[in-house]
């Protein structure tokens, strides 16, 4: 007979035991009074600002619940002033902190992007200089090839002119030789003087 009563009592007490020391938050409406007992007729121990985190002991009586506030004071507040979710104040603080963290991350990313952008700009400048050097080298090579071809052409022309001059000189010498030979053929031969002529 005691066993069913024991089980029923355990089931009734278990939610209170499970709820003990669970975090609760004071509603955002206003600040509330912390009473010495479960009712407005009990002495006021102090006030708790809206949005403050408190610990719920699991005890309730009528419209009041027992809590331990952030200063360690144990007392009773109206149950409808407690909320299991975070208060708007805490949510706002967390959102502001998250926003600050995001801003810091964004600033870091921007700084990294600026550094990367500077590196890319530097690489582009180096690439442009390299392209200019390549263009200059190609132009110098083309100029060198053109100069070499021009020099070869002039050398060939000089060789041809030298050959022509040698042929001219050779032809002139041959012509002079023939002319001298013809003249020598037709020149009168000197007569030999007789040795007796001197004696006369």
Automatic annotation (TrEMBL):
The keyword Amino-acid biosynthesis does not apply. It comes from the Bacteria. Pfam families: SH3_3. Its main location: membrane. Residues 1-19 form the signal peptide. Residues 33-82 form the SH3b domain. The chain crosses the membrane at residues 166-187. Residues 85-161 form a coiled coil. InterPro entries: SH3-like_bac-type, SH3_dom_pro. The keyword Membrane applies. One of its GO terms (cellular component) is membrane. Keywords: Coiled coil, Membrane, Signal, Transmembrane, Transmembrane helix. It is found in: Membrane. It is a single-pass membrane protein. NCBIfam families: SH3_and_anchor. This is SH3 domain protein. It comes from Shewanella amazonensis (strain ATCC BAA-1098 / SB2B). The lineage of its organism: Bacteria, Pseudomonadati, Pseudomonadota, Gammaproteobacteria, Alteromonadales.
